[in-house]
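Quality-control log, excerpt.
Job 1 of 2 completed; input and output follow.
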Amino acid sequence: MMAIKRLKEDTEYEEDPCQHDGRVRTFPHFPGNWAMQVFIPFMASAEFENLVTSLTASLSAAIFLDVYKLSHKELHVSVSRTVPIRHYWIDPIVQQLREGLSSIHRFTCALQYPELYTNDEKTRSFLALRIANECQKFQDIVRVVDGIFGQFALPAFYKDPSFHVSVAWFLGDVFSKDANDFQTNLQGVFEGKVCEKEIARSLVLQVKEVHCRIGNKLFVFSLRGT
């Protein structure tokens, strides 16, 4: 049975909720601060998009709310929180990330089942596909990132992280009631689609690099070849 998780890392950081479909900031804007997040990108195929369309259609019909699919450019697995940093921290953090992540080998994992998440503020909920068996390699990456964040007094990642790719979101938290029904319906749709060979292949994630976004800048760190 899928569990409903509380989540912060997928919260948007927009200024005006009225201009951004009701999304709100988790931390306030401060002049000179840059928002930073470390993550692993997920490349979606047409088959994956078809799966997500089926899942979001099922969820939207069940909750009677608009469910917004994330664009293919937004799909990722978080390995850090989104945190505010000072501009002069960028170079040393990026250099340490490049050095620390260079010792981690590339690996392959898979998205295994749909799961529902709600942020701590209960302002937004998410439909995600969760990584199979909580691959140990993700924990290795988080340890590197947490070690670097700690040197700058930045918060570590979650103690028991649930690695996943969020694929859609909607406003509010409607899972307090009839949660099992929502999850059962989603699991049924997922199992009906994943038996198709191409759909199953689309769930495989080959982790070859880690990305870090700081403001409008993107840094890419390649992992070691096998």
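Job 2 of 2 completed; input and output follow.
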Amino acid sequence: MAGTEHLFKVLVIGDLGVGKTSLIKRYVHQLFSQNYRATIGVDFALKVLHWDSSILIRLQLWDIAGQERFGNMTRIYYKEAVGAIIVFDISRRSTFDAVLKWKSDMDKNVKLPDGKPIPAVLLANKCDQQWDGVENNKAMMDHYCRDNGFVAWFQTSAKVSDDKSPFGTL
């Protein structure tokens, strides 16, 4: 019996230096490095998941550059995406303040076939560091996500692999 294969394009977006590339490298290759160069434009990674004995899922992760100068290209990069991960760095308040700009840009430039926004998850990255000006409060973050159209949020760290980090343990 032949199995079913699915290909899903997932965007990984957020400001420069929030750890998008590090999270992807940890998730796809189980590698972490302190030394990554800034992504120019877009980079890609593929994660193959054997969902069950008959379903194979290919996650095409699009690592979108965080620099403002690439903002006019996002419409092209976002095309045909079915989900997104928006990342901020808990140790840099400005990256949290930029989350809604990224969400708005994404919602404006890509939709599901039924016209609805693509589902987005918010990642509070670098949870191994100290929170800077964003209250580390589960109820507040749950409320923020509900009010701003996020499916969910998670604390994570590409550096520290533990049970609290969805990327660190996969």
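Post-run check on job 2. The beta strands are 4-13, 42-52, 55-64, 83-89, 120-125, 152-155.
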